[in-house]
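User: Please run a holo structure prediction.
Assistant: Happy to. Please share the sequence and the ligand.
User: Here you go; the ligand is adenosine-5'-diphosphate.
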Amino acid sequence: MKFILDYMKRYKIQCLIGPLFKVFEVVFELLVPMIIANIIDKGILKDDTSYIKHSVLLLILFSIIGFSCTLLAQYMSAYSAINICSDIREDTFGKVLKYKTLDIDRLGTSRLLTTLTSDINQIQTGINLALRLLLRSPFVVLGAVFMAFLYSPKISLLYVAVVVILSLIIGMNFKRSIPAFKKVRNELDQVVTETDDGLTGVRVIRGFVQTENETKVFKEHTDRLNKFQKISAKITTVLNPLTFLTINLFICLLIYSGAVEVQVGALTSGAVVALYNYMNQILVELIKFTNLIIQISRALACANRVQSVAEKKFDPDIEAKISEDSLITLKGVSFSYNGDDNYALKDIDLSLKKGESLGIIGKTGSGKSTLGAIIARAYDPTSGEISCSDGSFPTIGYTMQKTRLFSGTVEYNVRLDREGISSDDVSNALKISCADDFATPEKELTESGKNLSGGQRQRLNIARSLASSPDILILDDATASLDAITENKLIDNISKLDMARVIISQKIKSVKNCDKIIVLDDGVIVDSGDHESLLSTSSIYKEMYILQTKEANT
Ligand code: ADP
Ligand code: MG
């Protein structure tokens, strides 16, 4: 709640003008039944045509003023709601981009996607309605009861009763509809996850003839969403008939007791028409108010979700300790993705000097990528220490195993708006990464670089990491989709660079020229040394070597 109020403060004036003019509108609406009553009593019953004419002109004037108030109020409410939500969306998106990789992993992109789109839209609808109705509806209801009191204090008791009964019905309904709506939102997250997975993986799904299976799984999720939405809708649909029933019963009572009063001469027939109109105004307004409450409760549920994303607290950044001679040193570093004792890395000690190359090899799932991400500082270690040569972290060029390109030119993709990277740097990076044979800097890429092959995408990702001439270049399985000739050329080009390099691979060929190679197994460094020494000391390394040379020769 406070979260939204803070944003509303930015549009204080508009947020006040909206509801205020809604109240003016109500004043004119409440006067209308009174004028009509007078037309009946003083005009029609007394055959006074000029009185009728004057009153009708007055009615027209009131409608024009009322209409102007409405116009201004609706405009201001819409203006505030749209601006508030666009601010919330910008701020939240900015915040999400600062998230640590691990936090995004844990929350999930689908959740972030619904938060940034449909949750914020719900808030927008909620604010818009609240500004228009939150003040108006109670004002109409109280105003109508008050006007009824002016006509007949006795009959106005009926109005009090109707308001109390309807409030109880609405309140009870409200209590049931909120939990139902929460379920709908959570299930919606699931459907978004499924949609996202399905769309990004459509080639795999088709390639493995899984279309029917995937459609079935998707259907299960949408069915469940459908079920929760129906429950939520059922709760709200009984509301309107119930409200109408109550009001109509009271209208019967009203007309009956009104007729009695007219007969004893305590009320005029015009007054009974006015009373009837006020009862109807209460009905219409309470129905609007119910919808408002439902919308507000949804908006608040969504606001909580947005707030938890926008105001997420981060663990403090780890600080680098000073290390004498090496660019970066890891001491006793362990890492667990979920913070439990399921460690992806255990007790890692390693150091990297300026210009040195480090190979990381091991089976899939041995923790190579995780170690690369820790060196790149995409993840902070769960425990252990990182120290750096002058106490500040070296600059890193990090090519992840999963490539990421954006629509735009090759030059844009390589530079990514970073300062201090010249066009020459871009061309040079393209040359080193062997991308210059298929990509000129001007070449346009489509969404996610889909107009390139996997190997071409990898080379552009390597060029991106190289372009800023970082202190450390990290390549995580970056040559996996390249043909042997290009791969050899690229490894050769990289080995001539004078920056420190971390080469992560499952292939001996990619790491064998490194100054130092570590062998990972199940998150632990089991062996280390250069290629020659590992061949004699490491059984895993030797086994991989024999297997891979055999494969190469067959
Ligand atoms: P490698 O790169 O050697 O194949 P990884 O470093 O990717 O291995 O994975 C090491 C271990 O960490 C694996 O057991 C894997 O299941 C787990 N892991 C990797 N990424 C994540 C993640 N985002 N969330 C949870 N566990 C993960
Ligand atoms: Mg990996």
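The domain at 321-553 is CATH 3.40.50.300 (Rossmann fold).
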